[in-house]
Amino acid sequence: MSRRRRLGVAFSAALVSATFGAKAVDSTSNLAPAFHLTLAVDLAQRLGIAAEALTAQVWAAEREAVGRVVSIAPLLTLRAAELARDAELTSIERAVAEHEAYLARLDAQQKAGAAGGLSERHAVSVALAELAGRRGALTAQAVAAHGALRLEWGDALAHAVLDAESTVLASLKQDRAVLIKVEFGAETANPGLPGRARVALGGRRETSVEALLLDRAPATSRWGGATYWFTARDATLPSGAEISAWVATGDSETGVRIPARAVIWLDGRQWVYVQVTPTGYERREVALHALSSRAYFTSDLTAATHVVTVGAQALLAQEQRAAIPREDND
Predict the structure, then answer these.
(1) Rounded distance, CA 197 to CA 307, Å?
(2) How far is the first Cα of the chain from the last one, in angstroms, to the nearest whole number?
(3) Cα–Cα distance between 271 and 258 in angstroms, integer?
(4) DSSP string covering 204-262, please?
(5) Which fold would CATH assign to domain 64-71+175-252?
(6) Does the structure show a pLDDT above 90 at 28?
(7) Mean pLDDT of 255-282
(8) SS3 for 269?
(9) pTM of the predicted model, to two decimals?
(10) 251 contacts: CB under 8 Å, gap ≥ 6
(11) 33, 159, 239, 275: which sits with the fewest CB atoms below 10 Å from its CB?
């Protein structure tokens, strides 16, 4: 080996040293570090390595489910029918009141000794009977329609259709929100009412949006489990789309929030570099739950642990470079 090459190897060894193999678990992690890296301070500065303390985070335990964005067109049709039926019933009530007032006048005239009026009285009575028949038919239709509505859509959506003051349909109609039917498997046939949920296309939790529980749906899922109605303020979810859902179960777990930029992916696993001394770093595997596109949750580290958030890939490169056997022979 040339003198110049030997000097280069010696210089690199002074800047970076590495220790392979499992090490004892310390108080900041639930997992053993896979690799320890010592980096000279000046080299760390040149690489732009920066670490920051993690902050505590509570993770709401979730149960995965599937869902489908449901068109509200049938609900709007039912709402239109309800409004038309209400308008006709109002018209009938007004006509009945007018006819009954006319009959009262005829009765008063007859008591006052006025002659005639029998034909008018008969015509009004016939009209009242017809109005009463129509009112009865509309009332029966309403009872049947309301029962079918609740049977298919549940109480909350039935209320949205039948209550003129409800803003649920108005919000959905104006594309400020979408209606989602979330389905569970048979193992959750009676889970009770869940909490909030996150929903996304393509199973991508990091791109998910919040969904709010509306009501339990009457029908069981395709797998014999419970179904629920949620609304999500994301007009980009197309009607009929199959989605993934992560539904809060009410349980929670305490851990830390990790910036997404701190996470590196290696061999299909997720890792972070923990700064354990001013010049020492340990690569640790972590189990992550996506909080958003910018952050993850893990219970494998504790608050105040310093994790490299700038330069993690550079540390990985240094680690891999240090792992290459050096040639000691000339």
Answers:
(1) 29
(2) 4
(3) 11
(4) -GGG-EEEEEEEE-SS--TTSS-EEEEEES-TTS-TT-EEEEEEEEEEEEEEEEEEGGG
(5) Elongation Factor Tu (Ef-tu); domain 3 (2.40.30)
(6) no
(7) 91
(8) strand
(9) 0.61
(10) 60, 61
(11) 239
